[in-house]
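Morning F.,

Quick status update on the modeling queue. The single chain you submitted on Monday has been processed. Sequence for confirmation:
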Amino acid sequence: MMSDETGDVRLREVREDDLPVFFEHQRDPDANAMAAFPARDREAFLAHWTKILSDDTGMKMTVLFGGRVAGNVVSWEQSGVRKIGYWIGKEYWGRGIATRALSQFLRLETARPLHAHVAKRNVASIRVLQKCGFTITGDARVPADETGEEIEELLLTLGQVQEEAGAAGRRRGGGETMTVPGESPAEALAREVRIYVFRHAAETARVPQPPEISAALGRPLADVQEALKRLAAGKVLILAPNDGNIWAANPFCAVPSGFRVEAGGKTYWGICIWDALGIAAALGKDALISAPCGDCGEALRLEVRNRDLSFGEGVVHFAVAAHHWWDNIGFT
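Structure tokens below.
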């Protein structure tokens, strides 16, 4: 039987005798309000879990705390996208159980990327996912629930850059922009710009520049430039020293360099061999990398297959220690 445990929190495969506990968990009004999801009656609940348990593509784990059923974590395939969800009983909130359970689950569920949809108001679950490595990659409005309320959701993703990432970074109707709880307007715009830049670079093999970003997002150019400065200060990307254009959205270089990456029928550029390998990892695709020898200039070739370096020659040498890379990133 598949299991994993750390401290008082343990996972095991879901059993039918867990379902009555799950049923009571999902009936709690506070939990329903936080998750923005109404409780199911017994018949609908059993039909839902019968479908989950019969799905061979999914992983279904019960969360145990001190030997008692505290909730569940599940993953499943939907329209070619791997998704994840969890539910922890209210009596177990505030003890770090969700974070520990999800962390354990992610060691068992190795498929990437993984996607989670969370109500924007569910700050606790957003934090749990972020602690486990998920990042916000999109937003959406889902159809009104039985209360007549339209629900705002965030999409969080764990894994490589991929095309399904939803509507993040795009302007919403009426000029409103989705924000994360606690974000300032400047932080929200920086996130919007960041998502657009990296998605565009991954999808087109071209790093967009400020005027293009401004037009795509419908934002004033001056605001976009300030957002880019904020991102550069956070070492998210590198700006050219004189004109404020993007030099690199790490690992994607905005101009041709000596580190060429062929992947998915497109040509990408890295500013160093580290970033060239990072491009292959970020895209999650097979890649051919060509780079010059740092000693003699001779052309070298590396090949990435199935997310592994299947062929390579030479030695990757870092002339500058990693903790000094950002002292002068242009030199590095």
